[in-house]
Every structure is written in C-alpha cells, then in structure tokens.
Specification:
The complex is a heterotrimer of chains A (about 350), B (about 300) and C (about 280). Helices cover about 25% and strands about 35% of the residues of chain A. In chain A, strands 6-7-8-3-9-10 form a 6-stranded mixed sheet, with helices on both faces. Chain A has a 5-stranded antiparallel sheet with strand order 13-12-11-14-20, with no helix packed on it. In chain A, strands 15-19-16-17-18 form a 5-stranded antiparallel sheet, with no helix packed on it. In chain A, helix 2 runs parallel beside helix 4. With about 350 residues, chain A is α+β, with helices and mostly antiparallel strands. Chain B is an all-alpha fold. Chain B is built from 14 helices and 2 strands. Chain B has helices spanning about 1-10, 15-25, 25-45, 65-70, 75-105, 110-125, 125-135, 145-150, 165-190, 195-205, 210-235, 240-245, 255-265, 270-305; strands spanning about 50, 60. Chain C is mainly α and about 280 residues long. Chain C has 2 domains: about 5-75, no CATH class; about 75-285, Orthogonal Bundle (MetI-like fold). Chain C has helices at about 5-35, 40, 55-60, 75-105, 110-125, 130-140, 150-175, 175-185, 190-200, 200-220, 220-225, 235-245, 250-270, 270-285, and strands spanning about 65, 70-75. Chain C has a two-stranded antiparallel ribbon. The two termini of chain C are about 30 Å apart. Classes of the chains: A alpha+beta (about 350), B mainly alpha (about 300), C mainly alpha (about 280). Chains B and C meet through helix 2, helix 3, helix 5, helix 6 and helix 7 of B and helix 1, helix 4, helix 5, helix 6 and helix 7 of C.
C-alpha cells in the first residue's frame, strides 16, 4: 500500500485555482520528484502535504491515515525550505536539534544525533554558528539536517538546491540520493530543473498549471511524454516541434514537402494535421545520401559540453536542431548533410489538446 | 510513537480550531473597540438633546438644535477661531523649526546623534507638566523668563495672564514640546534619501538653495505631509497644555474646542452642548484623518508592498 | 560630502547652540529651582549660583511641609505611586492583550480584523473627551468612578492601539516559513508563538511597550476626568499642587522634577527603541 497518497487535492487562493484535482502516490522509500515550471503550484502542493495550507477539497493520506485535518506537527513530516527558513535566533545546533526537542529526547541523545547528522552533512564545524554567519551552502545543509534528523517517515524538499551555487548544486545532486536512501524515508522533492528531476527521481509528477500532466518514471516521461507541454519541458536542446500532415495511408508525415516515415499504428490520424516532435539526438546525420533521408545544410553550430548543437535547414525551408558528438568530423557552416529519424523515435501530437497520439496495435 | 496515535485522535477539531484562532486572539481588541464605540454613540445621542445634569427634568430630544444654535453663538465662533489659529500657528512654526534643525543635524556624526537624543527629551515630557514648567518660568514674581524679558525693556510682560500674549505663551510651550517630533520624522526622512541626485547636483555645481528647494524638499514631501497631518490633528484638539496653563483664560482668550467642551460639561453641566461641540471637532478630525490614513496606507504599501 | 567653510561651520554651531539652549533650558532651570528655597527663588536678579538645599524633596517624600504658617500634608508621593502603578499595569495588560491580537492581524485576513483595525485606527485621532465625557456618566452607574480598574481599562484606549499598530508590523516582517518550519519540527502553535514569533518581534514589542508606558505616564485628560484626588497620577496631581495655597515654589519645581524624571530617564535609556517606535508609528505602522 502506498505510503503517501495525494487524492484529488484542490487549492484555491480567493478565485485563483492553484491546484486542480491533483492526485498521485508514492511508495515507502521512494523519491518522488514534483517537477514543473514556476507558478505551476509545486510549492503550494508541498505545503498542503505538510499541513501548512489547507486544501479546499481532497485528501492527504500518510502511512495510511487521513491527515487532511491533522496539524503539521503531528504528521511526522520533515521539510527543507527553498529559503532555508532557519531560526535566526538559534545556533545551527539548536536549529537541527529542534525536531528532537519536540520529541522529548534526552540531552545526550539529542547531542549524539545532531552530531552524527552534522558529520554526515559535513557541517559539524559550524554547529555553534548562527545562521547569519553561515554560507548559503552551509545553511542549506543545516536545513537538510534539521529536516532529516528525526528520521521522519515523509521528507519534503522544496527546491533545496535553488539558492546554492552551481558547483555545490552539482555535488549535492550526487550526494543527496545517497543521503536520502540512508534514511529510507519517502521523499517528495520539488524542482524546476529537469536534469535534477531525472537524476533524483524514482518517479516524476509533472505539474503544469495546477494539474498533473504526467506521472511516470523519468525514462517514460522522456521517451513517451503525454503531451507536447511535457515534451518541451524535458531535454536540452529543446525538442523540435513541427507541424505536418499525415498522409492517407498513415505511413508518412510531411512537413514542408519533406517527409518522415511514420511507424505503424496511426490509422486514426490518417489525413489529419498534427504536431510532430523530434528530439535532437534522434536525428541521424550522414555525409552521404541514404534511403529515407532529407537533404540538409548546416546553418549554425554551437558547442555544448561534450556535444555540439547544430541547426540545419532543408531546401524546402524546414529547420531542425540536432546534436552530434564533438569527436566526429567537425562540420562547417554550409556543409551538406543527409538526415533521417528512426520512425519509432517520432512523436505525434494532436493539435487541439496537445496530447500525444498513441499508436494502436491491431 | 506520538504521531500516528494523535493522527487517529485529532479529527475535525484541527480545522475548527484553526478557524476560530484569529477571533480568539483579537477578542480583547474587539472589547476595546466596543469600549470606544459605546461612549461615542452615546455622545452622538446626547449631542442631539437638551441635557443639563443640574436640570434633569428638562432633558429632551431636540435633534440638531444644539448645532444650529452654534451658528449664531459668538462663543462657538470664538472657539473655532482660536482653535484654528492655534493649530496653524503651532504646526507652521514647528514645521519650519523642525525642518531647520533636521537639516542642521543631517550628517550622521557622533555629535549630531547626541544632540538628537537630547532634543528628544522635551517630547517625552508630559505636555501638562511642560506647561507647568513654563508657567513657573513666566511667573511675574520670580520667573526667569519674566526677568529676561524685563531686561529687554518689557517691564510688565504678563505672559499667559495677559489676553494679548496668552496665545503666544501656549504656542511657545507647544513648540517646545512638539518640534522634536517633527525633527525626528524629518531627520529620518532626510537620512533615508538616496545620495545620487545630490552627488550629481554637487558635481554640476548647482547652488545649495536650488538643491534644497528643488530636490530635497520635493523628496521629503511624504514625510512633511505625514508630520503636518499628524500634528494638525493633535493641535486642533490640544487640551493638556492650555488647560494646565490657564484653563482657557484669560477670559475666553484660549477657549479651544476641548477646553471649552470640558468646561461646558463640568462647570455648566451642559452635556448637550459639550457633546455637540465635541462632535463638531470630531467631524473636523475625522475628515482630516481620512486624508491622512489614505496617504499613510499608500506609504505603507510602498514600504511593505509585496512581501 | 558637504564641505562647509569655517564661517559656515561657526554659523551652524551657533544655531545648534541656540537650539540646544532653547530646548534644554526649561528642564535645566526647573531642576535648579527644585534645590532652592523660596527666598533664593524670589531673589532678583536670579542666579545659577546658590546654595542648594534638599528640603523641597524632603517635604515631598515625607509628605509633610513645615512652614511658619503651620504643617501641611502633601499627598504628592501618592500621585507618584499612582502614575507608576497605572502606567505599568495599563501597559502590561495592553501587552498581554495586544501582542496576540497584533499577531492575528498580521497573519490572518479576516473581516472582523479589518473592521477592528479600522475602528481603532480612525479613533486614534478622535478627541478623547468625546469618549471620556459619556464614560464618566457610565462609570458612575457601573461604580467604576475613581477606581484603579476603571482607569486601567480606560488607559487601554491609549496603549492598546499603539501596541497593535507597532507590533503588527514586526510580526508581518517575520517570514511565515520560519514559523512553519518550527511547526513541522513538531511543535504546537502556541509553542511556536512563544518560542519563535515573540522573540523575533521582541524589538518591536519593546519599542511599543516603552512608548506606551511614556504616553500612559504623560497622560493628563483621562485621569483628570475619571480620577479623584487619591487616584490621580502626577500629571493631574502637579496641577492641583500648583493651585493649592501655601505650597512653596521650590516644592512645585521638585514635584515637577520627580514627575518628569522617570520618562526622561526611560527615554535616554531606550532612545533607539523610541525613535524607531515613533517613526514607525507615524510612517511604517
């Protein structure tokens, strides 16, 4: 049975519907990422689960108990805030000890536990300092320590790496999963960074405009996004979206007189106009013409870490972003290439709803 | 552990408690509110009655007769004139003086800070006691000020006992007590002004007077307005200073609103007239304070804004 | 930044000197007078050099004045005690009632709260007698005339709005996340209020309390209307003192000194809080 269940949560601020029938669940020990663009309601959702906000409708179920009317201090939840929210008049030690004092532990127990988690997060040398004397990285670790020290069943992390410098963010992205697995809590992690989401999540709940757009493993979301919106949120460089028409036989889709081969199963969309999505990395580029390829010319090249992003244009005016590894023969602007897309990598989306068209097997 | 057990035990009570909490917390404030409103409405009621404590059998409802009678009552107009004169004189002079001192103390130096603290003291003195202090100093027999003034050639300067100089005397006390308030406000304003316009003007060689009148003053406007409104509201209903000094005399020279109302009530036991007079004063202060509150709320939006 | 020439500095210094003279002189002079006998006071020309004496303070403190005309009982110490008792009690009560209310206004948006705040705000500038005169008549009926209870209750009209006004701003400045974090750490709402909200708002509470005490102490008209001789604070008592016959001028001066010294000392001690509270009360709120 799921450890954490969010059941049709609706939250309004005056007339503004911030969360609209949001539902998902998490298993014990799972790290579930809530991902979405800013303003999508992620922070509000976290606070509803924490008990800081009350939903207009819906239920929050933790460890099998309906917690919707339960005060935050009784939910066995640990939370780390984006802005750290450390108690400015308490030392780092007292901040971290705070959940333990609420449990009525003895002084020696508290000291032991605070020290051990401080060592784990490498902040044992600043325990006596007050928040104003700590760096952002130290504040974030203190906030994390405070959230985790009492080993709560549910851990809520509200974009904890947002206010931390890039280098530390990258380090923490590696350390966090290890740390969280140690405690075995169920983790809800909020972020706007898709890379963070994909790196940390067992499953991702994509929140857009207050609604769950997709709830699935990172791999599924990336390869089989439920809608154009979700597809655009993941991947860098962004996915190519082109408007095209499916032919009557439903085996080709044409964009500006260029044609791509469609996989089987799209009879329902025969003859209709759709949006097609092509991830840059699914474009295969060849120096010579092969069957099913389109003639393209290089317009710009941008290096990106270990790859290069290249913008290509066909004679008919079709523009595509593609990537290729840098060690390959370096291309120059104006070079001719032949490109194709493996049919199974092609994504088809309905125009009206933006939902992905699912191929039917029959 | 406690969490799961209390989760089972805490049902809808959580939500209810959260709803009544703000009402519970603000209950005392509500009581004070009621404590203000009941006498207020009683006063409104009394102001529309013929009601003298020493002639209780004549008590009766007369609607707005009290107010209409004011219009033809020279004592009423005297009160209005004196109150307005007092208010504008004190506020005007205090503004000028307060601004001048604030400008003098503008630079945050140790000396300037000590001086501003010292200048706080008159403001912290009870106005009634300040009045007594000045009463002692202007005593014709031993008052130091009487002595100094006689040195200047005014041999029989009677200060508050003389109708021609009574107003001057109480205005002087008011200035002594309240100028520091304006000074503090304007000093805070001056010190919070951005430096760039002044640096730019200095670089351009703009003369000091231009800087002051065309740059400083306009930027200080919110503080000036706040100070003016605040003090006007207090000055027009001044009681302590005037009552302590002369109880409204000599004659009716200093019969400002609240002093007049007080005497109407306690000396002539005319509840109807005194409450009516206070209602007139209230109407004036209400109108003024609405202006002030609107302006102050706008200022507050700017500083607190979207948090 | 502003380089003043020597003559400008001298000019500025002179002006400041005059200003300081004007504002400090009365306090200084009355202070001197309190150490003088009637003969020294009546001497012309008056001088700042004289032999100081403590008999004025003695007379006030012991409550007895021995003159050639006979002995007189002075109840001034009673007035002083009334001031201390009334002001402290009023402020304490206001803090206990007002701080939670200020919190409610800061954190919750509720209709009643807006109405209460508006009423208290708009009556901040209303003439006190408008409320006091009907209140006198009511108090007689309820039996609260000339009682400490009645006075402390009425003093709330002075101190409570000030505390609500100032402390609300301080509570609003505390990030709600900090309070949420403490709740989520396992503490109840009450514990959060006591351990987090109040300590973080302490400067504001101190400023408001201090200002309220000074305003309550300096109040005149409330006590004038609602208190009789035995309950009057020094502000009213001093006036009665002055108009009573047979009192020596030096004693009046000593009485005034004793009456203003507490607030002046408080003001000096806590001037930082005061200035903050005053400008907040006027500008920030």
């Amino acid at each position: 049975m799921a450890t954490l269940q969010v059941d049709r949560i609706t939250k309004k601020f005056k007339t503004d519907v911030v969360l609209d029938e949001v539902s998902f669940e998490a298993e014990e020990g799972e790290t579930l990422v809530i991902f979405g663009p800013s303003g999508s309601g992620k922070t509000v959702l976290l606070r509803v689960i924490a008990g800081v906000y009350e939903p207009e409708e819906g239920k929050v179920v933790l460890q099998g108990h309906d917690m919707t009317d339960v005060a935050p201090e009784h939910r066995d939840v640990g939370m780390a805030f984006q802005n750290f929210a450390l108690f400015p008049h308490f030392s780092a030690r007292e901040n971290i000890a705070s959940p333990l004092t609420a449990l009525g532990k003895s002084d020696s127990q508290i000291e032991e536990q605070v020290l051990s988690i401080a060592k784990l997060l490498k902040i044992e040398h600043v325990l006596e300092h007050f928040p104003r004397a700590l760096s952002n990285g130290q504040k974030q670790r203190t906030a994390l320590a405070r959230a985790l020290v009492a080993a709560p069943k549910t851990v809520l992390l509200d974009d904890p790496l947002r206010n931390v410098d890039a280098k530390l963010r990258f380090e923490m992205r590696l350390e966090l999963p290890r740390l969280l697995r140690r405690f075995g809590s169920t983790v809800l992690y909020v972020t706007q960074d898709y890379r963070e989401a994909m790196a940390l999540a067992d499953r991702i709940a994509v929140l857009v405009g207050g609604k769950i757009a997709q709830f699935d493993t990172p791999e599924s979301i990336y390869l089989r996004p439920s809608s154009i919106e979700v597809a655009k949120l993941f991947g860098e460089p962004a996915i190519n979206i082109l408007r095209g028409q499916v032919n009557d036989e439903a085996n080709r889709v044409s964009v500006n007189q260029n044609q791509f081969i469609l996989p089987k199963g799209f009879h329902n969309n025969a003859g209709s106009i759709c949006d097609i999505g092509i991830r840059p990395e699914s474009i295969r580029l060849f120096r010579e013409k092969r069957a099913g390829t389109i003639s393209l010319e290089v317009i710009t090249i941008t290096p990106l870490n270990e790859r290069s992003v290249v913008l290509l244009r066909s004679q008919e005016g079709l523009e595509l972003l593609a990537t290729y590894p840098a060690e390959e023969k370096t291309a120059k602007i104006g070079d001719p290439f032949w490109g194709m897309v493996v049919p199974e990598d092609l994504l088809l989306f309905e125009i009206e709803s933006g939902q992905r068209c699912l191929p039917k097997q029959n | 552990m406690s969490s799961t057990s209390s989760a089972l035990v805490a049902p809808k009570s959580g939500r209810l408690r959260k709803k009544i909490l703000p009402y519970l917390l603000s209950l005392p404030a509500l009581l004070v509110c009621i404590g203000i409103l009941i006498p207020f409405f009683t006063a409104v009621y009394y102001s529309m009655m013929r009601f003298r404590l020493n002639l209780p059998y004549l008590k009766g409802f007369i609607w707005f007769d009290n107010y209409i009678n004011f219009l033809s009552d020279p004592a009423f107009w005297n009160t209005v004139q004196i109150s307005l004169t007092y208010a504008f004189l004190t506020v005007g002079l205090e503004l000028l003086l307060g601004l001048g001192i604030a400008v003098l103390l503008q630079q945050p130096s140790k000396f300037n800070n000590i001086v501003s603290v010292l200048l706080l003291l008159p403001l912290m003195t009870a106005p009634a006691l300040a009045s007594l202090m000045w009463k002692l100093m202007t005593n014709p027999n031993f008052g130091i000020l009487s002595y100094l003034v006689s040195m200047l050639g005014f041999s029989d300067f009677r200060w508050a006992s003389d109708p021609s100089t009574a107003l001057l005397t109480v205005v002087l006390v008011d200035i002594w007590v309240y100028t520091p308030f304006i000074m503090i406000l304007l000093l805070a304003g001056l010190r919070s002004l951005p430096k760039q316009p002044f640096e730019a003007a200095a670089l351009d060689g703009v003369p000091q007077s231009f800087i002051f009148f065309r740059i400083t003053l306009p930027m200080l406007m919110p503080y000036l307005l706040t100070a003016t409104l605040f003090r006007l509201l207090e000055s027009i209903q001044q009681f302590d200073i005037i009552y302590s000094m002369t109880q409204g005399g000599p004659g009716d020279e200093l019969m400002v609103f609240q002093v007049q109302a007080y005497l109407e009530f306690f000396q002539y036991t005319n509840v109807g007239r005194s409450t009516a007079l206070l209602m007139v004063l209230w109407a004036i202060t209400f109108a003024l304070s609405n202006v002030f509150i609107k302006h102050w709320l706008r200022l507050r939006e700017r500083t607190h804004g979207n948090g | 930044m502003n380089q003043l020439s020597k003559s400008q500095r001298v000019f500025r210094g002179t002006l400041l000197g005059l200003v300081i003279l004007f504002f400090m002189f009365p306090i200084f002079w009355i202070f001197l007078m309190s150490f003088q006998t009637n003969e020294q006071i009546l001497r012309i020309p008056p001088s700042i050099f004289f032999e100081p004496t403590l008999i004025n303070y003695q007379a006030l403190i012991t409550g007895r004045l021995e003159t050639q005309a006979g002995n007189l009982d002075i109840a001034f110490m009673e007035n002083l005690w009334n001031s201390v008792f009334l002001s402290s009690s009023a402020v304490l009560l206001s803090l206990v009632l007002g701080v939670p209310a200020a919190y409610a206004f800061a954190r919750y948006r509720f209709r009643l709260g807006e109405d209460i705040a508006f009423t208290i705000l708009s009556f901040r500038f209303a003439p006190p007698l408008l409320v006091l005169l009907p209140l006198t008549l009511y108090f007689e009926d309820i039996g609260l005339s000339n009682t400490y209870t009645g006075l402390i209750w009425v003093y709330q009209l002075i101190s409570l709005p000030l505390i609500l006004w100032i402390v609300r701003g301080y509570f609003e400045d505390i990030s709600p996340d900090i309070e949420s974090a403490y709740r989520l750490a396992g503490h109840s709402w009450l514990k959060t209020f006591m351990k987090i909200s109040i300590p973080l708002a302490r400067p504001g509470i101190a400023a408001a309390g201090l200002l309220s005490f000074i305003f309550a102490w300096n109040n005149f008209v409330f006590a004038l209307v609602l208190a009789s001789a035995d309950k009057q604070p020094v502000t009213v008592g001093a006036l009665a003192f002055v108009t009573a016959s047979g009192i020596q001028y030096g004693q009046i001066a000593a009485g005034i000194v004793l009456s203003v010294t507490p607030t002046l000392l408080l003001a000096l001690y806590a001037q930082r809080y005061l200035v903050e509270g005053l400008s907040l009360g006027a500008v920030k709120g």
